[in-house]
Amino acid sequence: MTRILLIEDDTETADAIVSELTERGFEVRWAPDGIGGLDRARESSPDALIVDRMLPGMDGLTVIEALRKDQVRTPVLVLSALGAVDDRVRGLRVGGDDYLTKPFALVELVARVEALLRRPFDSRETTLQAGPLELDLIERTARRGEREIDLLPREFRLLEYMMRRSDQLLTRAMLLEEVWNYKFVPATTNLIDVHMGRLRHKVDGPGETQLIHNVRGSGFILRVR
Amino acid sequence: MRQIEFIRSNTFLWTAAVAATLALFVAGLFAFIYWKIDDYLIMRSDRMIATQLNFLAELPPGRLNDAISDHLKQDSRGVQYAGLFDAAGSRLAGNIARLPPQLDPGGPVRSVRLARVAAPTVHEATVKAAARRLGDGHILVMGRHVDETREISTVVGQALLLGLLPAFCLCLLAGAWLSIRAERRVEQVNQRVQRIVAGDLRERLPQSDADDPFARLAGIVNGMLDEMETTINALAGVGNDIAHDLRTPLTRVRLALERGRTHAATLEDLQEVADKAIGGIDQALAIITALLRLAEIESNSRTAGFGDVALDEILRQVCDVYEPIAEDKDVALRVAIDRKAEVRGDRDLLFEAIANLVDNAVKFTPRGGRVTLELMSDGKAVRVRVSDTGPGIGESEREAVLRRFYRSDKMRNTPGVGLGLSLVAAIVKLHGFRLTICPGPGGRVEILAPARAVACNAAPSDPARERHESLAPL
């Protein structure tokens, strides 16, 4: 079972996170302060860490820095009520792998934890496969089974991202950040949906099994299993 | 207390010091004049004594006595001394009682004490005198009482008093006046500043038209106060706007929850209520996020991360993002790039600004309309223009749209938090660029920026090809 250590001082937030992650099949340990959290992280070497930035005793970023100094490479998701881009940058610089601003939706948190736990892909590969889908990363061509899919560059980028994270919930915020490199929330809220609609139209032809699924209110999944 | 303060005031101390220096200088000058004049007069008197001595010595012995008494008679001020003595030293003629022993016949003029033969007393005075031995063995003494020296010193002293005292007083008066004036102005400023501190933001420092440093300073401070007043008023307005914009979704949330609690019968009902509540809270959060973002940009802390930003790339990326949305709305979105252009700035922020402009343009352009994203550069200035065939922004609203949360009544029901243009304005201001909302027809917003020197390999690209490439498929 995947083990996650949560370092968070607010009991109610921690309770909600622990319950949600436990329901999803994770084994969650909780530490309410920075020093205890750091000790627990060193003893139990979990698979992923969720660390709040503002902690009593020791700041969340200091905890991450200390772990990174010990050559601990465990993926870390930083939680913070500080939403400014600069804080985000600082959080990622000290060794956080992802940054989530409070308040957040629980699905968003789970999606990001799952993304962190996924092993990094091999950057040398030239083709990518997920179910019936196949991408040629050199030729920039896509096919579904025997059918060629004609994609615009931006659609290709989106499909590539989704195929690397197939069967995993991808939230709109994750897609905006990773695929479009957005550092802000666009005024048009259905921006991603429109792009996804285009891609789905091309990927899921008439009579074919639907691969791209819209998870209501949360995001999208490329389901190949 | 006030007197002490006044005397201790810097201006007054300075004037006092200047007055003292002036006094010293003038006293020195007068002493010099006195010394020079005295010197000159004594020299002249010595020459006269020598001349008279020579003149009398040349006379025949018979006429000498008469000449001496004539000479003395002419002396109305009684400063002249003359005497003829025989070889033994007994007086033969003149008004000198005794032959002064220090006087060396034939020697130069020197100061000796001479007693005058005058009834009733014989009084001695220090006199400049010289003696000459005549052919017949008699000794002729001529002298002159140089009291002019004293007179001159009196005159000089008087002149000093007459000239220096008023000058000194004038100096002090001027100093006092200057320092009182300065004190008074400081006091005036202090009172006004106290009022401003107390919250009266419309108060301004007294400002005269005179071009003195004080007036200039007041002008500068008043300019600063103007800016602050605008900002603070804007903030106050924003407070109200935030309250309003936050209350609207929160009210919906509250109502939904309240009704759901009473009326929901099934799990589906409750879920629907919860979804509504989450939606409302998300809207409130979006407003807070946008506000924090605005505050972050306006706090000016990001200029350190500035680099060279290729605007043509940003324009293409924005177009890439918004093309499908425009297409869905049946709006033609196209990019026209004159030539490549780089500016100094923050790539992410500039992307955000241009994306916001395009977002707005697409949102407010009716079906079948057109949105054009242009980049024009003449090597010195770069102009990014976003124009559309929408309703445009009326003259009266042009200022207002840059304010936070402003949404014209016709936009009230369009989604969005109403911070788009104020964000753009804040980003443009942070970069030191200029944002212009141009008059209609249609909407047209421009960002004007100074260009960076573009590297040689960035030759002007073929505009026709660019246009073709980025023309939105309809």
UniProtKB/TrEMBL annotation, chain A:
InterPro entries: CheY-like_superfamily, OmpR/PhoB-type_DNA-bd, Sig_transdc_resp-reg_receiver, WalR-like, WH-like_DNA-bd_sf. The modification 4-aspartylphosphate is found at D52. Residues 125-224 form the OmpR/PhoB-type domain. Transmembrane segments: none annotated. GO terms for biological process: regulation of DNA-templated transcription. Residues 125-224 bind DNA. Keywords: DNA-binding, Phosphoprotein, Transcription, Transcription regulation, Two-component regulatory system. Residues 3-117 form the Response regulatory domain. CDD domains: trans_reg_C (cd00383). SMART domains: REC, Trans_reg_C. Pfam families: Response_reg, Trans_reg_C. Gene3D superfamilies: 3.40.50.2300, 6.10.250.690, Winged helix-like DNA-binding domain superfamily/Winged helix DNA-binding domain (1.10.10.10). GO terms for cellular component: cytosol; protein-DNA complex. PANTHER family: REGULATOR OF RPOS, TWO-COMPONENT RESPONSE REGULATOR. This is Two-component system OmpR family response regulator. It comes from Bradyrhizobium stylosanthis. The lineage of its organism: Bacteria, Pseudomonadati, Pseudomonadota, Alphaproteobacteria, Hyphomicrobiales.
